[in-house]
Design a protein that fits this description.
- The chain is an alpha/beta fold.
- Helix content is 37%, strand content 16%.
- Strands 6-7-5-4-3-2-1-10 form an eight-stranded mixed sheet.
- Helix 5 links the parallel strand 3 and strand 4 (126-129).
- The radius of gyration is 19 Å and the shape is globular.
Length: 320
């Protein structure tokens, strides 16, 4: 039986008040459609989510602001992991952990670890580097600091600097003893001119999710399936990050995904906190699933539309 984990990256990078708008998801009426709405949905399906909070934002937006976010998630019974976009606390021109020296990374991760301990009173166990941009120095530092599981390996993603890769699709026990659970990645587009790896994400259409998820369930290499969302996954924010609005479409999209897994397939999500982690490790790096036929062109079309829309939204924000 494959293991299933639901993860959320909790972060805000644009706007006048990113924590309020993109983490809490507050709109102009002070209604919240961010982390609380996600936790409400997870609670309904009896899923304990793993929320990776960008701890580095405490140096940018204020320590009390990020402490409140972390404590709230913890008090609601979900897991809090450490996420780091280093430009919030170090060099604004270096966005990725892999761009920093070993000593610089150690200082950044140590400070964020200490902040976590100060906030929640326990040592953090789970880590995911911002933009999956860690490297082997990152993994060595995490081991030294006592982390149990890293979620940074994203095979085929240009930002991931773990080279050679830890693994492709299997979760594995590293020589250091730390467990590496990779992003659940698959090749969505493959033709003569272009190929692309993607991950299971809350933004996927339900038909796309069902097709990919069912194929990964059958694929022998994937012993753990990691589902993914952001704190802002259920709001419209790109055109106006200072005044986001609730998206019924995005909400229903994610709800159908979870309903399909939990009720249609009758699968349970795993609780990392109370399970023996040895059951997550396998031998070998595994291989990846590749979409075939007309679906690869379908994904290419979707990706093209997404890029165009993103550029239009960014241009719109600049004009405002």
């Amino acid at each position: 039986m494959k293991k299933i984990i639901f993860t959320v990256d909790v972060e805000g990078h644009v706007g006048n008040d990113p924590v309020s708008a993109l983490i809490w998801g507050k709109d102009s009426k002070n209604e919240q459609y961010g982390i609380d709405l996600l936790m409400n949905m997870l609670d309904e399906f009896k899923i304990k989510g793993l929320f990776f909070v960008d701890v580095a934002e405490a140096w940018h937006y204020g320590s009390e602001t990020i402490m409140e976010v972390m404590r709230h998630i913890h008090e609601r019974g979900h897991l809090v992991g450490v996420h780091i976009h280093p430009d919030h606390m170090a060099d604004k021109k270096r966005l990725f952990l892999g761009e920093y020296s070993y000593d610089e990374q150690f200082d950044i991760i140590k400070k964020c670890t200490n902040f976590y301990v100060e906030t929640l009173g326990v040592m953090p166990k789970y880590f995911r580097s911002g933009k999956y941009s860690g490297n082997w120095d990152t993994l060595k530092i995490l081991t030294e600091l006592g982390y149990s599981i890293d979620f940074s390996e994203f095979y085929g993603q240009k930002w991931c600097k773990i080279s050679p890769e830890c693994t492709i699709s299997n979760s594995v026990r590293l020589d250091s003893g730390m467990l590496e659970i990779p992003v659940t990645t698959y090749m969505s587009i493959k033709n003569k001119h272009y190929s692309r790896f993607d991950k299971i994400d809350a933004t996927m259409t339900f038909s796309e999710f069902k097709y990919i998820f069912n194929n990964l369930l059958k694929h022998e290499s994937y012993n753990v399936l990691v589902l993914f969302a952001h704190s802002f996954s259920m709001i419209n924010w790109r055109k106006n990050p200072n005044n986001p609005s609730f998206s019924k479409k995005k909400y229903k999209q994610l709800y159908k995904q979870l309903d399909y897994v939990c009720n249609k397939l009758n699968l349970a999500f795993n609780d990392l906190e109370n399970e023996a982690l040895d059951g997550f490790a396998t031998e070998g790096n595994g291989t990846y699933f590749c979409s075939k036929g007309i679906r690869t062109w379908y994904y290419l079309f979707i990706r093209f539309c997404s890029v165009v829309k993103s550029k239009i939204d960014i241009r719109f924000r600049k004009l405002k």
